[in-house]
Amino acid sequence: MSTTKLPEVWLRGPLPDFNPWVQPAAHALLQAQEEIQAMASSFPDVLLWEKPAGLASVGFHLQHLTGVLDRLFTYAKGESLSEIQLQALKSEGKCPQEPCSTTQLVEAFSAQVGRALEQLKKTDEQQLLAKRSVGRAQLPSTGLGLYFHAAEHTMRHVGQLLVTIRFLLDKQPA
């Protein structure tokens, strides 16, 4: 039986029901979701909080990916962060409950990608260039800028996550 590897998400054509202006962000989020599910879904829980060479753990990256999408998409709606979101930010890098598994963190990221994609679908094109404020300093951006940064930031962390996973798995005894 042969398995055909699909091209990257952006090379599979337009996504139905997405405005062309947000297609690149949607493609990037779907690509991140696929890569994380392929690489992290079987990652051993015992290594989840390991920090090779003092770098961020797999658990941190999975939490951060979920949290940053939530935060940036909140700003894109023109809203401020809630107390729950601020608490989640403070707890990134720590196991929030016992047991805390890779599967739970991957599922949380996938659910957040689903919410982000729904928001992208519903985004009114007229709001993409609307001014948005980011963070406590109320730094200037736009809806489109936030969506682009969410996609770019996500892919940056996916790269770091995949390298960390590979490193930790390669150093395990055979």
UniProtKB/TrEMBL annotation:
InterPro entries membership: DinB-like, DinB/YfiT-like
Pfam family, one: DinB_2
Range of residues in the leader sequence: none
Entries under SUPFAM superfamilies matching the protein: DinB/YfiT-like putative metalloenzymes
Residue stretches making up the DinB-like domain: 29-161
Protein name, entry field: DinB family protein
Biological source species: Rhodocytophaga aerolata
